[in-house]
UniProtKB/TrEMBL annotation, chain A:
<dbReference type="GO" id="GO:0030833">
    <property type="term" value="P:regulation of actin filament polymerization"/>
</dbReference>
<keyword id="KW-0009">Actin-binding</keyword>
<protein>
    <recommendedName>
        <fullName>Actin-related protein 2/3 complex subunit 3</fullName>
    </recommendedName>
</protein>
<dbReference type="InterPro" id="IPR036753">
    <property type="entry name" value="ARPC3_sf"/>
</dbReference>
<comment type="similarity">
    <text>Belongs to the ARPC3 family.</text>
</comment>
<dbReference type="GO" id="GO:0034314">
    <property type="term" value="P:Arp2/3 complex-mediated actin nucleation"/>
</dbReference>
<keyword id="KW-0206">Cytoskeleton</keyword>
<dbReference type="GO" id="GO:0005885">
    <property type="term" value="C:Arp2/3 protein complex"/>
</dbReference>
<comment type="function">
    <text>Functions as component of the Arp2/3 complex which is involved in regulation of actin polymerization and together with an activating nucleation-promoting factor (NPF) mediates the formation of branched actin networks.</text>
</comment>
From TrEMBL, chain B:
<dbReference type="GO" id="GO:0044396">
    <property type="term" value="P:actin cortical patch organization"/>
</dbReference>
<dbReference type="InterPro" id="IPR043129">
    <property type="entry name" value="ATPase_NBD"/>
</dbReference>
<dbReference type="InterPro" id="IPR020902">
    <property type="entry name" value="Actin/actin-like_CS"/>
</dbReference>
<dbReference type="GO" id="GO:0003779">
    <property type="term" value="F:actin binding"/>
</dbReference>
<feature type="region of interest" description="Disordered">
    <location>
        <begin position="40"/>
        <end position="78"/>
    </location>
</feature>
<dbReference type="GO" id="GO:0005524">
    <property type="term" value="F:ATP binding"/>
</dbReference>
<comment type="similarity">
    <text>Belongs to the actin family.</text>
</comment>
<dbReference type="GO" id="GO:0034314">
    <property type="term" value="P:Arp2/3 complex-mediated actin nucleation"/>
</dbReference>
<protein>
    <recommendedName>
        <fullName>Actin-related protein 3</fullName>
    </recommendedName>
</protein>
Amino acid sequence: MPAYHSTFPYDPNTDRLIGNFVIMPIKTKFRGPSYPCNSDYDIIDECLDLFRPNSFFKNFEIKTPSDRLLIYGILFINQCLATIQPHMSYNDAVKALVNLSLNHFVLPGTPGFPLNSTYQVPIEDPQQMALLKSYLAQFRQELAMRLIERVYTDPKLGVEAEQDKTKNSPSKYWLSFTKRKFMNKSL
Amino acid sequence: MSYLNNPAIVMDNGTGLTKLGFAGNDSPSWIFPTAIATSQGSQSTSSSKKLDTSMNMSNTNYSSSTTATGATSTGTGTNKNSYYAKSTSATAFDNLSSNVLLSNNLAGKRGTEDLDFYIGNEALIASQGPSYSLSYPIKHGQIENWDHMERFWENSIFKYLRVEPEDHYFLLTEPPLNPPENREQVAEIFFESFNCAGLYIAVQAVLALAASWTSSKVIDRSLTGTVIDSGDGVTHVIPVAEGYVIGSAIKNIPIAGRDITLFIQSLLRERGEQDTSLKTAERIKQEYCYVCPDIVKEFNKFDRNPEKFAQFVVENKERTSKKIIDIGYERFLAPEIFFNPEIASSDFLTPLPTLVDQTIQACPIDVRKGLYNNIVLSGGSTMFKDFGRRLQRDLKSIVNNRIAQNERLTGTKSTGVDVSVISHRKQRNAVWFGGSLLAQTAEFRGYCHTKQDYEEYGPEIVRNFSLFNMV
Ligand SMILES: Nc1ncnc2c1ncn2[C@@H]1O[C@H](COP(=O)(O)OP(=O)(O)O)[C@@H](O)[C@H]1O
Ligand SMILES: [Mg+2]
């Protein structure tokens, strides 16, 4: 069995393509160009669910545009986890990840992006590139904040328990995944 | 003629573990690593003997006047010494803390010059000191160092089983595709050096099939089926039709117990656990790991059910300090490498269910049904909970996809293929147990070659053994 793929089919009514990169609706309160999301489960939930299993795989065949967003999300999660230090408090992690989400990140298609052979975007079109940039900023913030909720859940209590996450330490089970690199790549 | 009443000896020498005991018993009396520690200084003298193919029986070195018989020794496996007890590990030191080795009680049986060695768990202990070096005489199922193997058997017989070989028949096991020359070597050692009464060499996979007859799922006692034998170093997929191994279709994967242990060790290290020794990794493997239906869902189960996480306490020898090791996703990720080899290896990528399917597809078409509906598990590394269930599900889906595709192409409806994987209670030491079943039957001695046969016809006689017809 190969690595897990995104289960979201391309939907021309809600999804916009920038080259072969897709802008999909996400559930979020952060401002940005995402359309409102009608479903309970979005691509960000999927990135969080597939991050751990897919981190063990080196090979991945891109089948749909949403697979490209999935790869991006998984690589970004790895970068977030590398930013969270083992004893970092919840509040410090929030600050660190907000910074990471917004501060000068490399856009697909531009020099320094690790997957340019498979991501084609119209770099000559400034409007499209601005849309891509503001969508990714929104996507990264939302993903980072939902990741923190998972990482600061005490594994000994579980997600369903009442707990004050701001008092927890980050889960070593999640942090250990920084040692693995999905597709042998990192952002 | 005491061999007529004595139980036969059943020996299964695996790459990792040797299983040793008496026919008719439910389980081996001893299980220990197939390891030998030899003194660094002494050179062996017995190595030249195996080249001597003469049938001169004058030098029966090992004969003795002691009359320990199998009947009285049966069940002596419950020894209090830890290195005599049953072992589940071929490499780690399972609570072997003693530095005092038993003196070698073979001294009375022959000259002392050759006795400076230890086998099994004692060998592991001896090799911790400076004067002994450890080696494993069996590699990938086949004997590679005959001199070490002969000494290993010598100690097995006289020090563990404590029997007189001339008073017993022996059932030994061999891997699939064992060259006939190797059988002759074995016969020479057993008849000439040990002077054993009679010998039968059985193919491990065939014994594993016989062992599965204890399962309630098995209705006819057939010797047709596919054996998945997974030990410490390698996993074999062996198709057997009416007792004969279909040699051309056998396949191996280089993934077995040791690889799983190493994978657990790497996960413990990535998490920075306090003890990441192989011993700890192997115990976690044997006590906590299981096969899950789907790893994505299993990660989420761990998020929702905190009781899925476990803890393992490691105490030092003196019991003065404790280390607590947390156990997490390795519980289901470790055996997942059979089904998703990519998660641990970059050079071998074929999942076990796919390999089983390829093996059966490489067999003659008229036996395939029988091979799909009797897939029998054998060996320590098939012991993970739900291993058989997952294998059956994944293989079924491969087979059903192919059938559906054929139906689309040909437009004819298929009668379907019944895929059935057999797990049973004797699976861990299935090869040994199958040997115990066969060697306790009244017919067994008739299938053995005896000392007299050997003297009359020479070593070639062991190139063929008749198949058992136990039905
Ligand atoms: N309960 C268990 N669960 C998982 N692995 C086990 C269990 N018991 C033994 N093993 C593993 O099985 C292997 C030995 O299997 P065995 O069939 O005796 O090998 P071989 O015949 O090749 O020497 C070792 O790697 C050991 O760690
Ligand atoms: Mg074996």
